[in-house]
Amino acid sequence: MDLTRKTATEATRAAHAAMAAALPADDGGDFVLAKRGFVGSIPDADVPGAWSQRPFAFLEGERPDTVNPSLWRQARLNAHHGLFEVTPGVYQVRGFDISNITFIEGETGWIVIDPLTSAQPAAAALKLLRDEKGDRPVSAVIYTHSHVDHYGGILGVASPEEIAAGLRIIAPEGFLQAAVAENVLAGNVMSRRATHMYGGLLPKDPQGHVDSGLGKGTSTGRVALVAPTESITHTGQTLTVDGIEIRFQVTPDTEAPAEMNFFFPKFGALCMAENCTCHLHNLYTPRGAQVRDAKAWSFYIDEALALFGADTRVMFASHHWPRWDAGPVRRFLTQQRDLYKYIHDQTLRMANHGLNATEIAEVLRLPPTLEAEWHTRSYYGTLSHNAKAVYQRYLGWFDGNPANLHKHPPEAAGRRYVAVMGGAERLLAQAREAFTAGDYRWVAELVGHLVFADPANLEARALQADAFEQMGYQAESGPWRDFYLTGAQELRNPRPPSATPRQASAGQLRTMPTDNVLDSLSVRLNGEKTGATEIAFTAVFTDTGERFAVCVENAVLHHRPGEGGPQVELTRDLLVDLVHGAKTPDEVALEGPGAGALVSLLALLDRFDLWFEISAP
What we know:
The chain is an alpha/beta fold. It has helices spanning 10-22, 29-35, 69-78, 119-133, 160-164, 175-185, 187-197, 294-308, 326-352, 357-363, 368-371, 383-395, 410-420, 424-436, 440-453, 458-474, 478-492, 507-511, 514-521, 527-530, 572-580, 595-602; strands spanning 38-40, 82-87, 90-94, 101-105, 110-113, 138-142, 168-172, 230-232, 238-241, 244-250, 260-264, 269-271, 314-316, 323-324, 535-541, 546-553, 556-561, 567-570. The radius of gyration is 25 Å and the shape is globular.
């Protein structure tokens, strides 16, 4: 059975030729913008143990047949790395992570905007800045929004002692709640799906991960969640931070549930956070998250134009490269505004004609004026899954057809499909014919039923993997490519099951407020195991001085500040260790009469396995 990686088929090469012929004219302008203001870098942006651009050296050669020509262009743009001057007093380090870190020169130090995903690349970026522009302290940190690649690396630019001493950390209102909901409550499943979306398990080569569209990929260093000290609550709010005036615009429910743009009058510089990037963004992210509001997204870009457009000389963002001068900035913002509104309006127009999400996604096309731009292309989000996102936001997952209201789950449906098609061999024979014809979407759907009916069928796994692979090679979207290729990799090389859960890192739990740590336990409570069990105790945290009443009733876990039953004393770190199994109750001395109740609760909590199957049962 051939389970090896394959090269591009004739059908894939033909698809690439058709794509290349339809792409906008390329005058090289984006490459000029991506390199403008370059100050310096470190070799290969190499940060040991966390990040490196070295594996992407193959991008300097000719495009291989295994990469979509449009994605190849974006991958080469995202390969530029180093310290760049946006305008005097405003600097960015790009290419050290999937996101950018921006530094504003204040009166006494550096204001840091978005300290990357993890600490090591953030620290390397700060060192590069200081080496080139002066060894000044960090005077404040600003989080533009609640996604981990914009806050997780804070310990690389600020020490725990500096944070404890009152370092200003500024974020949009609702930041902490949104960050916890996305990265903790649903953290395990999102982390697993993120391994597919960002290609973290794929080799970095022309048949594997080449780019994420949004950037090269995500760093793998130390991640922390440190709560902000100040919240931006309304548009028009103005702060002076280290002598620099900042005018804020809140943009909730756009690219993130909690997000904000802001303007620096001194520099004529507008930060558009992640609301405007050099591609079509996600209205729904394939790793899983709340569907975003395309109408609100468009509205807030228009509002930013009205608020700041006349005074803006340069616009920068949390990803990709800036835009300079009033005319190009206004044109870019206008097109980005209309991109999201068009998808919103046209999806609902067709839905009101009775088309369902899948039908709309198949026929939606951009108007010629937007299709002619590079920054509207589907390098990250796609027209296909963004149309489905708009439909879902308004109408939910159900398309109104009763046949889809209560469908069989994949394994049960798979067995029925295989039987009605006359067995595995007949199904595979038809799938092979479809593969030869280049109908890889149908191969993936057809053989997927057999994989779920019989995951041990190597013929089925190999054929579906081959189909996924060609679909990945053809994808313009970095996440689509990585999903397909990671699916193929895992079908060919299934991960052996583990006797114990292989858990994701507890790093963010250790740095978030205690209230949020306790809240995260509620989604671990096993309802079936809990049944009618009732538990009540007071958790006294000796490191923070906090007290919380914790109770279980009706198989639901609640907590609130205050007293509520016998006390047990512990630290927040010890609670995280007990929840994750790093320590057991027998190994530690839990103090207080409520210790037994805590132990009873721990016995009812699930431990999540990061490596659950996705492409097979």
